[in-house]
C-alpha cells in the first residue's frame, strides 16, 4: 500500500521529509527475508521514483542519508550489502544525481570501501563494487586525495583489474569498461 502512495510525488515527498523515513534503514535489515525484501523495494522506490525530488532530498540530506547508508554497505547480511551496493551504483550513475555523485566520489573513505569490496568473497558483490569503483577512476577531476590513493596503489590495481572476472568474456561492456579503467590508472601522472 505504501508503494502505491509513493507513486504520487506529493506523498513521496511527505514520506521523505518525515523522520520516519530513516526507519527504513532498520526495516531492510530485519531477519525475516520477505519483510526485509519488501522494505528494500519500498526504500528503493522512495529514493529513485521521482528523479528531481529524490535528487533534491539526497542533496539536502546528504550527510544523514549516507551515514545511514554506510551501515547498509557494511551490513553482515549479504543480501542487504549486495542490494545496497547495486542501488548505490544506480544512484551515482543517474544524471539527476550529478551533485550527489560528485560529492560521494570526492570522499577517500568511500573509495577505500569500494576497493575493499572489490576483494569480497562474493563475485556478485565484487561486480557491483566495480560499477561504483569505475565512477571514482573515470572522474576527470579527481580530488587530490582520491588521485593519491589510486596512484599509491597503481600497480596493484592494474594487476588486480587485469585478472578481475576474466571469465566474463561475453560481457563486452564490462570488458570495455575494465580496459578503460586499467588505461586510466596506468596513465595517471604523479
TrEMBL record:
<dbReference type="Pfam" id="PF08569">
    <property type="entry name" value="Mo25"/>
</dbReference>
<protein>
    <submittedName>
        <fullName>Calcium-binding protein 39-like</fullName>
    </submittedName>
</protein>
<dbReference type="InterPro" id="IPR013878">
    <property type="entry name" value="Mo25"/>
</dbReference>
<dbReference type="InterPro" id="IPR016024">
    <property type="entry name" value="ARM-type_fold"/>
</dbReference>
<dbReference type="InterPro" id="IPR011989">
    <property type="entry name" value="ARM-like"/>
</dbReference>
<comment type="similarity">
    <text>Belongs to the Mo25 family.</text>
</comment>
<dbReference type="GO" id="GO:0043539">
    <property type="term" value="F:protein serine/threonine kinase activator activity"/>
</dbReference>
<dbReference type="GO" id="GO:0035556">
    <property type="term" value="P:intracellular signal transduction"/>
</dbReference>
Amino acid at each position: 500500500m505504501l508503494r502505491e502512495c509513493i507513486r504520487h510525488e506529493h506523498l513521496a515527498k511527505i514520506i521523505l521529509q518525515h523522520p520516519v523515513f530513516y526507519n527504513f534503514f532498520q526495516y531492510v535489515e530485519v531477519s525475516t527475508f520477505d519483510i526485509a525484501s519488501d522494505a528494500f523495494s519500498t526504500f528503493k522506490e522512495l529514493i529513485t521514483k521521482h528523479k528531481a525530488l529524490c535528487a533534491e532530498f539526497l542533496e539536502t540530506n546528504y550527510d544523514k542519508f549516507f551515514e545511514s547508508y554506510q551501515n547498509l554497505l557494511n551490513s553482515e547480511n549479504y543480501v542487504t550489502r549486495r542490494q545496497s551496493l547495486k542501488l548505490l551504483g544506480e544512484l551515482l550513475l543517474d544524471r539527476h544525481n550529478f551533485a550527489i555523485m560528485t560529492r560521494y566520489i570526492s570522499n577517500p573513505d568511500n573509495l577505500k570501501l569500494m576497493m575493499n569490496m572489490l576483494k569480497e568473497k562474493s563475485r556478485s558483490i565484487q561486480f557491483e563494487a566495480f560499477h561504483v569503483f569505475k565512477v571514482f577512476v573515470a572522474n576527470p577531476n579527481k580530488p587530490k586525495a582520491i588521485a593519491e590513493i589510486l596512484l599509491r596503489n597503481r600497480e596493484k590495481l592494474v594487476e588486480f583489474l587485469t585478472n578481475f572476472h576474466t571469465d566474463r568474456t561475453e560481457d563486452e561492456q564490462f570488458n570495455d569498461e575494465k580496459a578503460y579503467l586499467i588505461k586510466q590508472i596506468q596513465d595517471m601522472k604523479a
